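Just curious: can you write whichever protein you like plus the matching structure tokens?

***
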Amino acid sequence: MISFANAKINIGLNIVGKRSDGYHLLESVFYPFPLYDIIEITDAPNALETTLTITGMDLSVRSDNLCLRAHHLLAEKYRLPAVHIHLHKQIPFGAGLGGGSSDAASVLKMLNEKFNLGLSISELEQEAEKLGADCPFFIQNTPQYAEGIGTDFSDITLDLSDKFVVLIKPSVNIATAEAYQHVTPRPSGEDLRKLLKLPVQDWKYYVNNDFEEGIFEQHPCIREVKLALYASGALYASMSGSGSAVYGIFREPVDLTPLKDLGTCYYPTIL
């Protein structure tokens, strides 16, 4: 069984508070982005435990890998047999694109289908929430408005299918913990959902990512990517999540030649 686990981008990201347990409260819109990890699950009838192989990127296999945790989560509840998971990584890590969360959600959905568990969408989302804040989003994988610690989702009408998006991943990787060290929670003011009803070219005046200020100060090369996207004609550009990837939304295809020295470019894609 093979599945393709897509990335996401954040359109707007407001850090609006902090709970007593240390978790931050946010407001953001998650939007699927067509950059994919590839996951294959095969039977392992003689294996004592589930195994994982990672190709595509130089990543070590750790026991806390989200793919393994997703299997363990359902295996404990439904007595699933051991399997072998092959993860071919193409979504860069430390980029704010949710690749690990997407992989975990895909494994949950694949196991549900493979072993006929009969879990509903809502039940899969409840299991995904146990793995991480972004994971439930990738179960339905449609544009969602996120609140709370990033696990409370509601539908939002947002269609960028007539636009082209360039995604650039600089060489620097950003750990989420690092990003939160440089952000101060504050009320967001106007409702992000209302702001996103404005024309895309007006978003740059009102729609912000609160992580950018601190991350740009620590890593000026990421700010350079955003400025270069605007210089190339982007209607809107922003860092995704806690970084380091930056995307630009364009009205039409754009020549990426001037941008290639800034990082790995993912070519304009119809969303």
Strands lie at 2-18, 24-43, 51-55, 83-88, 144-147, 152-155, 164-169, 236-239, 246-250, 264-270. The longest strand covers residues 24-43. Residues 109 and 185 are 34 Å apart (CA to CA).
